[in-house]
Amino acid sequence: MLTRAFNHRLPATLPAQADDRAGIERLARWMDSAFTLPGTNIRFGFDALIGLLPGAGDTIATLVSLYILGIAQRAGASKATLLRMGVNIAADLLVGAIPVLGDLFDVYFQANRRNVALLARQMAAAPGEVRRLERRDRWFVWMVIGVLVLMLSASVYAAGRLVAWIGSALLGS
Fold first, then answer.
1. Entry pTM
2. Of 6, 54, 84, 173, whose CB has the highest number of CB atoms within 10 Å?
3. If 0-12 CB within 10 Å is exposed, 13-18 middle and 19+ buried, where does residue 112 land?
4. pLDDT tens for each residue of 142-152
């Protein structure tokens, strides 16, 4: 059960290499954690609220997330970090599209704050540390790809078994 919102520890501010960074920090806060559920520590933002609009809400929230991804790309984030940020956006979109469960996921997952934290982590790291972080991001992405391939394989296998079962039921063998 969801007992508290995922709370990312962002640095006080991101390094000042891009003018847009303070703006994306604010944007991520508004989208993911601007409000507190009274009587709890659960934080949520406009992402969870606009996600209540069927279809359009998740699309709008994803466009905001893609804007943050674009700022990260312009700021010089590595391809591995950008890919990891993209995976966070995709997870937010896919799970967020499920009615009610998706909105609870938005409250917990907070993809925009995760992505701003990933960007801050990379920008604040020393050159040697950046390579280690990129390697870690690549491993994460490969793990996600592996899980997706396994899920795809399982669904193809299940579909094949279903078609075979329906075929045998129709042909009476």
1. 0.70
2. 84
3. buried
4. 887 788 788 88
